[in-house]
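Supplementary material to the annual report.
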Amino acid sequence: MPELPEVETIVRGLQKRIIGKTISGVEVLHPKPLGQTTPKELERFVRSQVFRKVERFGKYIHMQFASGKSLVCHLRMTGKYIYSSANVTKAEERRHIRIIFHFSDQSCLLYKDLRIFGTIKLYADGVTIAEKAKQGREPLSPALTTAYLLEKARRRQVAIKILLLDQSVIAGLGNIYVCEILFRARVSPFLSARDLSSAQAARIIEATREVIKLAIKNNGTSVSDFRNVDDKEGKFQNMLLVYQKTGAACAHCTGGIIQREKQGQRSTFFCPVCQV
DNA sequence: CTTAACGCCTGAAGGC
DNA sequence: TGCCTTCAGGCGTTAA
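Predicted assembly:
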């Protein structure tokens, strides 16, 4: 489940692998990631285009061509971009591949997505990117301040965990990192957002930066099936303190046992003793 | 405005 | 062994 650090890892891999490559053709093995766009439209849009720049905003990947046109992609749960130096022809290797971008040097970029929740959207030059406008502040931006979080939390009655998952508040956090952040900040995931104190907000911001920086440094978390562009796992799964640690002794306090509870449709992992 | 529930998808895992 | 249910969770949509 790619969150900010995983998407950042993929973007850095793409920058290394596809900048300067010319698209010679595209194969659409499953049309669902394209939404309303037809395979023919995609083919016409990307053929002969040269990748100039790849950026991340929130959990989105923004692939820009030298022409000014671009693709805005979201991986959702199981999407991944894998670079291959040669064409992929074996049926077993083609499993879960939905789109293939072929390059003029015979290498290609595979879009794999087991559950097909991910999306690829086409943007003409100069068009405002709707998805970008909806994002909240980036975790590593100085614009993310305690005052900003308190202001966003003030009128909300939802649990702080639900608020942190709201992409229009902070961009890029998902279930794993929000659990880890609240644990490190020693804040209960069930606390109503409006009851957040200034000290708690400050601890959350600090923990957010720490966790995100450390996870990026470790190339993300491969807890289910995340892989980078070179099909390699991340390392942050070895550094998780609460996520999927049900029954384990708390890493912060003595006597605390990590619990799992549902919040919304997702599992929340927390220590009932020290997260208050 | 906020909030909550649902649907989208596949495959692994657990229960009986 | 085999069938059925549950779970994984991001996010757009819809309804209240």
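The longest strand of chain A covers residues 51-57.
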